[in-house]
TrEMBL record:
Belongs to the TRAFAC class YlqF/YawG GTPase family. RsgA subfamily. GO terms for molecular function: GTP binding; GTPase activity; metal ion binding; rRNA binding. This is Small ribosomal subunit biogenesis GTPase RsgA. Monomer. Associates with 30S ribosomal subunit, binds 16S rRNA. HAMAP family: GTPase_RsgA. Residues 109-256 form the EngC GTPase domain. GTP binds at T148, K149, S150, D151, G200, S201, S202, G203, V204, G205, K206, S207, S208. The gene is rsgA.
Length: 350
């Protein structure tokens, strides 16, 4: 038997379940998504579940269950079931689906904290950290930067300096799986019932970090490639791991590209400390690009705001504006199509 409160089940979720027409059936949390089924952790154990036809064909790919979702299912036997409903998502980490302009992809839902994992080698990239952080903050998820492989030689002063504009907004941990003492503070930072998603590039040590946090080998890891010096792909899917007497860890495959899927690009100004200067701009609708009297540009010219930080802000804002505008247009088209469909149905009834 599983205690689902360890996986995050609470009174608020219970109330959500009561709004479903299937509230008399069993519930569980999606721990992994396979090509044709879903692994669901329920009180009775782990089940392999498929979707009802209504869910499979009545919803878009974006709306189908992702790791972390809470679902209601009809048990078929002790190991199988049929998912009949999905509870509304909260605190969901998204990304822009690769190869698209405005389509979202859900990575994990009901997330409390996101561990942005980077290694202190050639992989270290502040711009990548900013990108992950922006998306995490969008859904009111607490970002945490985990720097791995601190046993390697690196310039601590240089690293701290490059992170100063974002380290005020999230904790930063320097870790090495070869030094258990560096893992302990991270483990203490995870509270019972919390859900933590780990994101980052391949080879940064996400799976190794999870094993170290759990103090046992729960996920496979691979050695560093001798030819490229980079870690080989280990995680091939998003899956959930329960820590002993603590929270839930969600491992994710390494990503080469993490496209932003922000609804509110203007929020980036707060993340990059641009908002502090923007309040003094001559024009309220200043875009901080070429307007006269722009306090942000003045701060860059005076060296108060780093030019690299400013350039990164403009780049992410432009990408976010493009996504949010495209998403808005897509929603307008969907609403128009739905309205036309309803009108067509009324005509047929006449």
């Amino acid at each position: 038997m599983n205690n689902l409160s360890l996986y995050g089940w609470n009174d608020a979720l219970f109330q959500l379940k009561q709004t479903s027409q299937y509230n008399h059936l069993s519930h569980g949390r999606v721990s992994a998504v396979n090509k044709t089924n879903y692994e669901v952790i329920a009180e009775s154990g782990l089940l392999l579940c498929e979707l009802t036809g209504n869910l499979l064909y009545g919803r878009s790919l974006f709306e189908l269950p992702c790791t972390g979702d809470w679902v209601i299912f009809q048990p078929l036997d002790d190991s199988k079931g049929i998912i009949v409903d999905i509870l509304p998502r909260k605190h969901t980490l998204y990304r822009r689906k690769s190869g698209t302009i405005s389509e979202r992809q859900a990575i994990a839902s009901y997330v409390d904290k996101a561990f942005i994992v980077q290694s202190l080698d050639a992989n270290f990239n502040v711009r990548r950290t900013e990108r992950f952080m922006a998306q995490v903050l969008e859904e009111d998820i607490q970002p945490v930067l985990i720097l791995t492989k601190s046993d390697l030689e690196f310039n601590r002063h240089q690293v701290d300096g490059s992170l100063k504009h974002i380290s005020r907004q999230m904790p930063v941990f320097f870790t090495s799986i070869l030094s258990p003492g560096t893992i302990l503070p991270v483990r203490k930072f995870i509270k019972p019932g919390e859900s933590i998603v780990l994101v980052g590039s391949s080879g940064v040590g996400k799976s190794s970090l999870i094993n170290a946090l759990c103090e046992r080998a729960v996920l496979p890891t691979s050695e560093i490639s001798q030819s490229s010096g980079k870690g080989r792909h280990t995680s091939t899917r998003r899956e959930m791991v329960l820590m002993d007497d603590s929270g839930v860890l969600i491992d994710t495959p390494g990503v080469r590209e993490f496209g932003l899927a922000l609804d509110n690009p203007e929020a980036l100004a707060d993340m990059f400390d641009v908002a502090d200067f923007a309040a003094s701009c001559r024009f309220k609708d200043c875009t901080h690009v070429n307007e006269p009297g722009c306090a942000v540009i003045e701060a860059v010219n005076n060296g108060v705001l780093e030019e690299e930080v400013y350039s990164s802000y403009l780049k992410l804002r432009k990408e976010s504006w493009y996504f949010s505008t495209s998403e808005h247009e897509k929603r307008k088209r969907d609403k128009s199509f739905a309205r036309i469909s309803e009108e067509a149905k009324k005509i047929k009834k006449r």
